[in-house]
Predict the structure.
Amino acid sequence: MATLLVRHVNTLVTMDDHRREIADGGLFIRDGFIEQVGATAELPTKADEILDLTDHVVLPGLVNTHHHFYQTLTRVVPAAQDANLFNWLKTLYPIWARMGPEHIRVSTKTALTELAMSGCTTASDHLYLFPNGSRLDDEIHAAREVGLRLHASRGSMSLGESKGGLPPDSVVDDEETILKDSQRLIETYHDSAPGSFTQVVLAPCSPFSVTSDLMRQSAALAREYGVHLHTHLAETEDEEAFCIEMFGHRPVGYMQEVDWVGQDVWFAHSVHVNQEEVDVYARTGCGVAHCPSSNMRLASGIAPILEMLQAGVKVGVGVDGSASNDGSHLLEEVRMTMLASRVRAGMLGASLSGQDAPPLMTARQALELATRGSASVLGRADIGSLAPGKAADFFAINLNRIDYAGALHDPVAAVVFLAPVKADYTVVGGKFIVKEGQMRTVDVPNLIAEHNALAAQLLNDSTAKSLHR
């Protein structure tokens, strides 16, 4: 049985039930799971491999609750740089419609590489269009090459423009095909065992791109197989107006109408929710993927995260798509989670004359959301903290860098407050994905060249097509 001993960590952030932070700490790992956690002096002295992390801070692997890997191919597209969500989507749908299996494969590896280098060990991706023979299988196989844990969401769009939806008819599928493929993917790939590397999620895209029938049937299929459900919800005021006009409900009320509330459901964004809707989330067990950079980039607003936490809602962190962020740096998203929450608290405080200002989110709260919180949102009890029996997923940052000069009196807070850096080590299931700052599972220079060529081809083809109209 393979063993790994991690020792002499400057500060080991466990995020365990007692939120211990251990000086000169370490981990003893066997076959991908943590066997012991504690001070270095308390741990075994021998292992198959020993990693000395003097002058490093170690944290549980970050967990990304919402992404669109394929969007790494369309970052900062000029025509979409200054658009709100609906116009941004309308600009990019025709470009995405030109993708094929190779685009899915390469973009998956690019996004996961970027995530791994930012300390992420588990990622949920929402792939909701499958042009030109693309399949979710392309993403799953690529993720296995990189070595991160993947929650692969079988997204879908069935409500095209001709039926009152937002996406063009060219990127939607019929519902029978969607449901059959969803069942196939669950039966082929879904693994619910502790330490699972692949789980399948059913994820109709959004209220403005799928029918009510597909929402209900997807929920029934997911519950038959015991898999989770995910969709975008309450991201913009445009979406709210669409739901009221199309369905006679605000977005959260519509989810209740189509049986989309419960412990097995999480929503991306939830920017525009009121206290009554927050209470629905808390009462029914729905989770939220908070994506602050994307929400700011598209001018959607700032989600009421502290209010959700105070109500008992499960909240995790996501980077969202790399064409609306425009990156996949999860540690940066942790920082943005803290900062955006503080901006919202300041705005609320300014409107409360004579009353106490709302509390400010702390650095450790933001880290907890991206570890324990995100794991809870995904329904994972085996990740999100460093404790005996948990999966051996962690990342380490060397504190001896110019970025951290003057901040070593609190290295844990420094990870969030200071400008985000790349991980020096990222370990998933006891295996090195990043070691000494370098990817071990991906040829990064070749991947960059391949990715840029595909991205250029997508944009060039799209431009050429528009010129011939």
